[in-house]
Amino acid sequence: MNSFDLIVVGGGPAGIFTAITAAENNLKVALLEKNKRIGNKILIAGSGKCNLTHTGATKEFLEKYGANGKFLKESLNKYSPEKFIEFFKKNGLPLILVEESGKYFPETFSSLDVVNLLKLKLEKLKVTIVHNVKIENISKDGDEFIINTENETYICDKVAIATGGKSYPGVGTTGDGYIMAKELGHKIVPPAPALAPIFVKDYMFEELSGISFQDTKITIWKDNKKVIQNKGAVLLTHTNFSGPGILDNSRYIENGSSLEINYIGKDYEFLNREIIDEMNLDGKKTVKKVLGQYFLPERFIRRILTAAEVAEDLKLAQLSKEKREILVKLLTSNKMEISKVGSFETAMVTKGGVALEEVNSKTMESKKVPGLYLVGEILDVDGDTGGYNIQAACSMGVLAGKSMKRGKEK
Ligand SMILES: Cc1cc2nc3c(=O)[nH]c(=O)nc-3n(C[C@H](O)[C@H](O)[C@H](O)COP(=O)(O)OP(=O)(O)OC[C@H]3O[C@@H](n4cnc5c(N)ncnc54)[C@H](O)[C@@H]3O)c2cc1C
Predict the structure, then answer these.
(1) Least buried of 71, 102, 345, 387, by fewest C-beta within 10 Å?
(2) Which domains does the chain have, with CATH numbers?
(3) Does ligand 1 lie within 6 Å of residue 149's CB atom?
(4) Nearest protein Cα to ligand 1, atom 19
(5) Which residues lie closer than 8 Å to 121 by C-beta, 6 or more apart?
(6) CA gap 231, 63 in Å, rounded
(7) How far is the CA of 127 from the centre of ligand 1 (A)?
């Protein structure tokens, strides 16, 4: 008989940690996954090295999820990064901190080791794992949930939908959970790609693919107002801006937003003044040589000079005020109209999803359907790169699992 206390739909980090915690809580649990194995996204996380979490106190964590981050206060407090790190240590796969980035990885830098550990843990706790089973719909009949797959029907007292978002559909996340949640009466905030490259109109770095800038000031503008400004790495590709700093900022882009990049780490006034001083000191120096003093890649300097229509051998004394100002602007505040954000195929997470006001952030239970839990990326909350998304998914899973008592909801 396919009857369980809890059925978890989706074997990503959120579903796995819900299942583990509920099973530890003595519930009879089944985990249903449409792929032939669980943890597909864990396998590709951090390019196969699996960046599981980040350094920082819970308060600092909360800031990494934008305005909706406050929803995670309870889950991150109850299951903090320290407890997550402890979990892996206790289970024989300690995490190590890569100091420069603040990211935690398994000491073997292997996503596969993480998935194997979690699978073993589920098996030890006697969680029934069913692979290759796509959930078509979920309904509630009295106190019981009825879960239909193509060939079978499952019955349970509680159900957790942990089907993730719509990004990287190739690994199984095709937005199925939104339909299930909607059918059960939940509102869905329109999903959109996030942690994705940014495309701008008249992109000028097609030839400079591979050049990157560390600790770059990035600003997103909308209607002449700053939406967000922070620092991060920027990578130039053939067609767009990418790199962690760009991916993080992509979460804040709306129609009509623009992107501003400061490649040089000095503001407009400062750089302008420095170039004037340099000109007064030695007007025979070429403009190109002066820009070289700022540790910019040569190919990049050439491209900027071309964009400003400044010849490579032009001397400082010959540089007009107008051209100097164009150059300084390009380097310190290169503002560009955004044409689009990368598609769901390339986005690392999905923003939008099940509306948070209909889910109890202290238990992860639906406020509309007792016994229904919603965990992980399916919800309208998403974080920066750096381990914040897996941590959030697992913290939500643990909170849900801890909140569940055996027996039917009244
Ligand atoms: C390339 C890439 C790299 C990433 N790297 C990192 C990183 O290093 N660190 C980090 O913190 N985050 C990373 N992320 C983001 C992170 O992987 C996700 O935010 C996280 O996995 C979300 O967890 P989840 O359990 O909510 O959903 P998911 O991990 O997406 O899991 C959902 C599961 O549900 C299953 N499913 C969907 N529909 C059904 C259905 N109808 N029936 C049955 N099963 C179903 C899916 O197959 C999937 O296994 C990365 C994402 C990508 C795409």
Answers:
(1) 345
(2) 3-193+349-403 (3.50.50.60), 197-342 (no CATH)
(3) no
(4) 389
(5) 20, 91
(6) 14
(7) 20
Per the document, the length of the chain is 410
Q: How confident is the model at residue 409 (pLDDT cuts 50, 70, 90)?
A: very low
Residue 410 is predicted with a pLDDT of 36
d(CA 165, CA 352): 9
- Tell me how far the alpha carbon of residue 409 lies from the centroid of ligand 1, in angstroms: 29
Contact 29, 127 (CB under 8 A): yes
Sequential DSSP letters for 147-193: EEESS-EEEEEEEEE----SSSGGGT-SSHHHHHHHHTT--EEEEEE
DSSP 8-state class, residue 368:
S
d(C-alpha 320, C-alpha 275), whole Å? 12
Q: Quick: pLDDT tens for 288-312.
A: 999 999 999 999 999 999 999 999 9
- Which residue in the block uniquely carries the two structure tokens 């009509």? 256
Q: Is the pTM of this model over 0.90?
A: yes
- Distance of CA 349 from the midpoint of ligand 1 (Å): 8
Centre a 10 Å sphere on the Cβ of residue 206 and count the other Cβ atoms it contains: 12
